Amino acid sequence: MSATLKDIAATTGLSVTQVSRALNDHDDVSAETKARVRDAARALDYRPNLSARRLASGRSGIVGLVLPPEGRTPRDSMVVQMVRGLSAEFSRMGRLFVLHAAEPEEDVVAVHGRLIDGGSLDGFVLIEPVPDDPRIAYLRSRGVPLVLHGRTEDRPNYPFFDLDNREVGRRLTRMLLERGHRRIGFVNGLPEMCYVMRRSEGWQEALREAGVAPAPELQEFGAMSESHGALATLRMMSESGPRPTGLIAGNMLIAKGIYGALSMLGLRVPEDVSVVVHDDQLPGEDLMAMPATSGTRSPLAESWAPLARALIGAIENRPLAELQETGQFEVVERGSVAAPGPEFRTASEPFRA
Amino acid sequence: MSATLKDIAATTGLSVTQVSRALNDHDDVSAETKARVRDAARALDYRPNLSARRLASGRSGIVGLVLPPEGRTPRDSMVVQMVRGLSAEFSRMGRLFVLHAAEPEEDVVAVHGRLIDGGSLDGFVLIEPVPDDPRIAYLRSRGVPLVLHGRTEDRPNYPFFDLDNREVGRRLTRMLLERGHRRIGFVNGLPEMCYVMRRSEGWQEALREAGVAPAPELQEFGAMSESHGALATLRMMSESGPRPTGLIAGNMLIAKGIYGALSMLGLRVPEDVSVVVHDDQLPGEDLMAMPATSGTRSPLAESWAPLARALIGAIENRPLAELQETGQFEVVERGSVAAPGPEFRTASEPFRA
DNA sequence: TTGCCAATCCGAAACGCTTCGGGCAAGCCT
DNA sequence: AGGCTTGCCCGAAGCGTTTCGGATTGGCAA
Questions:
Q1: Is B88 on the interface with A (CB under 8 A)?
Q2: How many angstroms separate the CA atoms of A297 and A280, rounded?
Q3: N or C, where is chain A less crowded by C-beta within 10 Å?
Q4: CA distance A39 to A33
Q5: Does A99 contact B98 at a Cβ distance shorter than 8 Å?
Q6: Any idea which fold A62-163+302-329 has?
Q7: Which residue of A51, A70, A77 is in closest CB contact with B84?
């Protein structure tokens, strides 16, 4: 068996109490004692017994993630990337990362509850937040730290890591506006996702700034999938009234669908239609070979480490300001935007596929 | 806070000891008392405090999986399926499932060590075993229970869940032999994987039983990928000497590659070449739309629950015999096998793509 | 009657840690 | 000099469970 506090106390001549306090860096232990204790601990190859610590203190050193049930979850390659990213960062910080994959009939909130009082997890990473997310309310009511990937409101009072998605929407729209586009379609994600609505607001704001009234029929909500991208494009392009001359894709999968639909319609990018996309650089070989597309870019992969750090910060009671991070995105020009062709400036008859 | 044993003891008028024993189904508690205690526990919504239980019993109730670093790992959709399966089963058994995604420069064996004494994990699931797997030796030397997905030898002395892969190889080969094929190619996986070699042995045995000498040039080892399937097929089909009339695919991805290569060569299935496959029903939409293929079938998805149960059994010191399970597979006929055409019965000149 | 056994039960001691409430000097102030 | 603060330390009481070693019955054989 491993050495215990008692062993260290014995070899250093201190009490168990003081050894514990020394190792936990309390402030009523002299620096010299702390050093002596640390040395002894190392020499004895001491490893704290997590169960004991947990039982006594309520803290466990374990953090968790409840994966939403199949279906309500992002694509597998993203899940794997996320799990890898979180796991790596947490283990770097000496925390155990437990993963609970919720089953379809399971109540996700209840799962958190069970994990808290069964295993006394110290905190949770919450992904895929929805407005008024019940998980947030529950965890706060139980006083359990959490961190959000994304956020549910502009200035929330919980730790999070997020992009400025309103700004993403604005920038994407402006990229098209600046080239003269006025009818700008937005193939967006599911409206219950917070970031989707933020981007939608950005789109509307940028349009209004440019004196264009956002047309509801030029925005399509749906899953972040290729088929949604394709179907939404077909719908927008075959509607009566003026067709969009520029399209915004919520992510690369949607962009892929857009490209498919456009080529089916015999429309070229950027000659006939301009396309911009927010690229979160999802892994997946099917996205490797995509036409170069202008837009915003912000690798999702870079959000896991900050997310993990924010959670640990929250557990350690650091001030909220340190725990709220807004990720950067870049704006990239890759030639998928051109000025709208003259024939697209005015209404033309509906296009039929 | 949640109810404790003490609360149950108070309401039932029993001692904490007896309540504990009742709930754990010890045999010196009367059936009537057990029932009473169970009712009280339910009424109070009692949940055992895992930390206390662990502290007292020396176990942590936490099991782990170290995911091999990126690259040495199966495709993402399988990883997710596995994680979901294991997580669900473990949480059903009241265990926490911690996942550590190893990074490329990390020593996987050392990681297990750190997890054991940092988190006092109770046991590990080991996937992707290789012959003489160092993880097995290490965990055994530290006395930590483990369970293998697969195995490194025929009758190992550790818990495992595996198919009879030798039999899989035999059956696949026989499906072709029975229809009259004699030159049977095997597009197999990586030779360092144990199951790959077992299937290879099965192939050889079945051939020998039928009086056919296994030709080394008719077996190709490589990653379980579409491109390996395609390239191996092209190589076998364009070699001088008699070409195979039947092909065995190690899994569906390989089969997909085989189909691609065959159609490139203008060869039809089953008229020109027969194909059989071992289908572990990997998820992934790219495999949904595959030509119907005869062969063996055994859903990988069904292995996670038994795997988890075996690990828990090992932790609870159950006899080894209960912890070694060989999964079933079925043999399915789906019309991709026919008798070899006469022109293939004898040597023909090498085929050039 | 006595002794013994099986069937039930219980008290108390762990398990290793944190933390509350103090104690004891040494140094400062007034 | 007395009283206060400050710095460092300790004993002991938990945390909720398991488990060891008895204790208490009633029944049954000797």
A1: yes
A2: 6
A3: N
A4: 10
A5: yes
A6: Rossmann fold (3.40.50)
A7: A70
Nucleotide nearest to A47 (CA to C1'): C16
What's the burial of B315, exposed, middle or buried (CB within 10 Å: 0-12/13-18/19+)? buried
C-alpha span between A37 and A254 (Å, rounded): 58
Fold of the domain spanning A165-297+332-344: Rossmann fold (3.40.50)
Residue B332 pairs in a beta bridge with B295
Q: Could you give the CA distance from residue B118 to residue B141 in angstroms, rounded to a whole number?
A: 17
Residue range B65-107, pLDDT digits in tens:
999 998 777 888 899 999 999 999 998 887 889 999 999 999 9
Residues A68, A33: Cα–Cα separation, whole Å: 47
Length B123 CA → D25 C1' (Å): 43
Whether CB of B52 is under 7 Å from strand D: the answer is yes
The residue among A253, A275, A246, A264 whose CA lies nearest residue A340 is A246
The secondary structure of A286-351 as a DSSP string is HHHS----EEEE--GGGGHHHHHHHHHHHHTT--GGGGEEEE--EEE--S---PPPGGGTS--PPP
What distance in Å separates the CA atoms of residue A38 and residue B182, rounded to the nearest whole number? 71
Q: How confident is the model at residue B119 (pLDDT cuts 50, 70, 90)?
A: low
- The verdict on B55 touching A (C-beta cutoff 8 Å) is yes
User: In this predicted model, what pLDDT tens digit does every residue of B266-299 receive, in sequence order?
Assistant: 999 999 999 999 999 988 767 778 899 999 999 9
> What residue segments make up the domains of chain B, in order of their start?
5-48, 62-163+302-330, 165-299+332-344
Distance, angstroms, CA A11 to C1' D19? 30
CA distance A7 to chain B (A): 16
Asked if CATH classification 3.40.50.2300 holds for the domain at B62-163+302-330, the reply, yes or no, is: yes
Q: Strand order in A160-163's β-sheet?
A: A324-327, A160-163, A146-149, A123-126, A62-67, A96-101, B96-101, B62-67, B123-126, B146-149, B160-163, B324-327
